[in-house]
């Protein structure tokens, strides 16, 4: 089973964020198509509440994604933290028998990318 990571994107004052919505809907398409089985939602509270994770979760719940298919990482405030904090959660999922994962819209390079060995999918 594959795991999708949705990187955080700023929540705007009026609540709408085209980037966050686009990333979330792209992951939803992959989830509904059976390409990924779990979604790691990344992002804490930025300049405006709610957390990026909560905003993604609201979109996904509204589309019928089960809570047990979502893993929430709501502490990160940077892309680097998205990856580092999500990696801990991914390691736990892998320990439970899930060995593949997919990474949505990876935006950093270097050692982390090598360690995670992601398949990058533009959103």
Automatic annotation (TrEMBL):
It comes from the Bacteria. It holds the Pfam family DUF218. Coiled coil: none annotated. CDD domains: YdcF-like. InterPro entries: Cell_Envelope_Assoc (IPR051599), DUF218 (IPR003848), Rossmann-like_a/b/a_fold (IPR014729). Residues 5-90 form the DUF218 domain. GO terms for cellular component: plasma membrane. PANTHER family: DUF218 DOMAIN-CONTAINING PROTEIN, INNER MEMBRANE PROTEIN, PROBABLE PERMEASE. This is DUF218 family protein. It comes from Octadecabacter antarcticus 307.
């Amino acid at each position: 089973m594959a795991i999708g990571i949705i990187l955080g994107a700023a929540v705007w004052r009026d609540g709408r964020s085209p980037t966050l919505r686009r990333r979330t809907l792209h992951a939803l398409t992959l989830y509904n198509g059976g390409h990924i089985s779990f979604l790691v939602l990344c992002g804490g509270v930025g300049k405006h509440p709610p957390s990026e994770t909560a905003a993604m979760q609201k979109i996904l719940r509204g589309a019928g994604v089960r809570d047990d298919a979502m893993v929430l990482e709501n502490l990160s405030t940077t892309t680097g933290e998205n990856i580092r904090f999500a990696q801990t959660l991914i390691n736990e999922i892998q320990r439970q028998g899930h060995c593949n994962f997919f990474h949505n819209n990876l935006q950093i390079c270097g050692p982390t990318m090598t360690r995670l060995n992601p398949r990058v999918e533009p959103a």
